[in-house]
Specification:
The protein contains 8 helices and 14 strands. The protein is of the alpha/beta class. It has a single domain, classed as 3-Layer(aba) Sandwich (Rossmann fold). The radius of gyration is 18 Å and the shape is globular. 40% of the residues are buried.
Length: 284
């Protein structure tokens, strides 16, 4: 999710991949070095899984023996975590440095995980369409995509009949809110728009001293109803929808508390749905 207030304007969406890829390429060394990603722990502890996947487990359930595709996998820590739970995983990301880092970590740890560099909208062309038991998308992914309907169709194309989508994502309300003197002010659009939100932010969402040279990103909000409808129209059946009061990054600095890597509003956390988990099955 964006980590700084956005300035909305009619940015040409044809260049968003190059703009965002440059930023995410810069984030790779920053995230590899950050204590928040705990990359060394994957090398030292064969049973370690990411905090994101640990949060998902009560709803995700047993993935042992499943063939899974992880879309927008970044440096592969969640992908490797799913492999450690028994799935045979393929991770896909548009950042070459991220895919290289994920591949190196999988090799070093012996994980049943391979990685492919591709734009997510091309996933069904570069992976084996119609063969996956599970498509997994980790939190903070959809906001970088301009068209939720195209994404939903990619998910359906990858899954076998009866295969399952599992996604935990930042709640679209987060994209609408600007903090103002301790208050949460609804200020930006909730629904998907043709125009990109544009952020210029020199940091990232984890602790790191590594520099980010390419600071501009383009992002889009997607209403919860838009996401659900896109999956239904792509031939999926919704099997679960849960909302949570936490996210695994500090979305509103100074207003959130951290417990086990999950951030909640310090004051009345039950007034904001900060993330959601959505599950769907591809129709036969």
């Amino acid at each position: 999710m964006p980590t700084a207030p956005a300035v909305w304007h009619s940015a040409p969406v044809t260049d968003y991949r190059d703009v965002n890829r440059a930023n995410w390429d810069d984030r790779v060394p920053a995230h590899l070095a950050s204590p928040d990603y705990e990359v060394q722990r994957y090398r030292d502890d064969p049973g370690f899984v990411s905090g994101v996947v640990r949060f998902d487990l009560p709803l995700l359930g047993d993935v042992a023996g499943l063939r899974g595709a992880h879309l927008q996998c970044h440096i592969g820590t969640d992908t490797i975590s799913l492999a450690r739970l028994g799935a045979s995983m393929t991770g896909l990301d548009f950042s070459g440095p991220a895919v290289a880092a994920a591949t190196e970590l999988a090799t070093a740890t012996g994980a049943d995980a391979t990685f492919v560099q591709s734009d997510v909208y091309e996933a069904a062309s570069v992976l084996e369409a119609g063969t996956y038991d599970l498509v997994y998308t980790g939190i903070g992914a959809l906001t970088w995509l301009p068209d939720i309907r195209r994404w939903a169709q990619v998910v359906a194309d990858l899954l076998r009949p009866g295969g399952r989508l599992f996604i935990r994502e930042g709640h679209p309300m987060l994209g609408t809110i600007d903090p103002d003197d301790g208050k949460l002010v609804v200020n930006d659009t909730y629904f998907e728009m043709a125009e990109a939100g544009v952020s210029d932010y020199a940091g990232t969402y984890v602790a790191t001293d590594a520099p980010i040279e390419h600071t501009v990103t383009h992002w889009w909000n997607h209403g919860l109803g838009e996401t659900v409808t896109a999956l239904l129209d792509a031939g999926m059946t919704i099997t679960g929808l849960a909302e949570h009061d936490s996210i695994p990054w500090n979305g509103f600095p100074g207003m959130m508390t951290n417990a086990d890597g999950e951030f909640r509003l310090a004051d009345k956390p039950d007034r904001l749905a900060a993330s959601f988990t959505l599950q769907a099955v591809k129709n036969s």
